[in-house]
Amino acid sequence: MTTTAPPATARHDALIDRLPPDFRFGAATSAYQIEGAAAEDGRTASIWDTFCRVPGAVHNGDTGDTACDHYHRMPEDVALLAALGLDTYRFSVSWPRVQPGGRGPANPAGLGFYDRLVDELLARGVTPWLTLYHWDLPQELQDAGGWPARDTAHRFADYAELVHDRLGDRVTHWTTLNEPFCAAILGHVEGVHAPGGRSLADGVRAVHHLHLAHGLAVRRLRAAARRPLDLAVSHLLGTSGPATDSAADREAARRADAFGFRFYLDPILRGRYPQDLVDDLAEYGVEIPVRDGDLETIAAPIDTLGVNYYRSMRTSGTDEHGATADADGRPVTRNLPHGGLPVTGLGWEVMPHDLTALLLRLSHDYPGTPMVVTENGAAYDDHPDAHGFVDDTDRTAYLAAHLAAVAEARAHGADVRGYFAWSLLDNFEWAGGYAARFGLVRVDYATQTRTPKRSALWLRDTAHRVRTAGGASGRVGRGT
């Protein structure tokens, strides 16, 4: 039996078909979200193992102890990735698996897993795109101060070199950090991610030390390289315009842009922190703990900027009661949805046109650095049939619209060289536990059965069409 999914719109197809044959099509995952095997082969606890045990911290009390059992099913997952025609796999390395406790020599068993993963990918013609840190800090380093402590940056550089010593002969693409905003602000200011802190000062220190860790690792990797490397960092980015044309909203949008956008890009790509951000933080009695030489280290040249995009917001300078200042007299900065737009299963507004705008802004404001969309995807309320197949036309349309948005940005001059869907597999989605499903491939967590969804088949056929520069139907078969 075969069926077909609704094709992408003609406009989407026309834009996507303009992508070059060497454009990268990939999928992304992270270690804690899929690997499981939390206490096997010498792995020690990460801050997420600890956070998952905090009552009420994670939906349903879920943990990553088993997740997708990728640690034991890795060859099957790589075969699936290759069967979907994806040429690049962005995965992360588990720091507490490779270097238990965050100090000392590498753990041979833990590092051996990634050694086998890289060989399996290369044997199937898939390029490994390695991310060194996707939020799973060893708990022992958290106990010693975590990212608000400067020493953690130096421990990260040591860890990066250990991984490179083993894999640097085969891995070309290295991403130092995934989304420092989430690790620092969601984890240390808003308290909704591990380690669950609620201190602006700690969050700002964590941002700076994550940046420093990035720069130190870039320098170590360049010095140790046995072959040309492509070094990157991936940031969670979006656009943030004023909710109205009022002076309060325009000023709030400037503050949001400084804290949520330029705070992460300016030090790495311009070698400085935005002065308006420094002034804003001073109003809260908070300083960025910069020492002599830090910014030169942080601005060590990279080869690729990773762009993770999910949604954009409007910014208001008034609270829900119309006040422009809080109880302490500080200005209000409040993010609002745009309204009237389609939303994902998580209620996130679908705004592919803002991905085009974002890529063009990055190209204009930070010229000369190639970009790859290292994460983009959507959670929807998947409904499998009796065979586990998910006819996710909503996710398929989402991917088509966003891939077309990338192509449109390229057509206007943005140097974007690849698109990696989040995520290859349904997985543990942090504080959301297993409730949200982002995967191209459905995972039945009871049996660990993998079933490609309609969106996976669409992406497979679209990638093939672009590479071969033929056909333009955008239609996919059910497959088997």
Task: Describe the secondary-structure layout.
Blueprint: H1 10-16, E1 24-28, H2 31-34, H3 47-51, H4 70-83, E2 88-92, H5 95-98, H6 108-123, E3 127-133, H7 139-143, H8 151-167, E4 173-178, H9 180-188, H10 200-224, E5 230-236, E6 240-242, H11 247-269, H12 275-282, H13 294-298, E7 304-308, E8 313-316, E9 334-336, H14 352-365, E10 371-375, H15 393-411, E11 416-422, E12 441-444, E13 449-452, H16 454-468
Parallel strand pairs: 1-2, 1-11, 2-3, 3-4, 4-5, 5-7, 6-8, 7-10, 10-11
Antiparallel strand pairs: 8-9, 12-13
Helix pairs in contact: 1-15, 4-6, 8-10, 9-10, 14-15, 15-16
Description:
With 480 residues, this protein is an alpha/beta fold. The chain has a single domain, classed as TIM Barrel (Alpha-Beta Barrel), CATH 3.20.20.80. Helix content is 40%, strand content 14%. Strand 12 and strand 13 form a beta hairpin. It is globular. The chain starts with 9 loop residues before the first helix and ends in a 12-residue tail after the last helix.
Considering the chains and any ligands shown, give keywords for the structure:
480 residues; alpha/beta; TIM Barrel; 16 helices; 40% helix; disordered N terminus; disordered C terminus
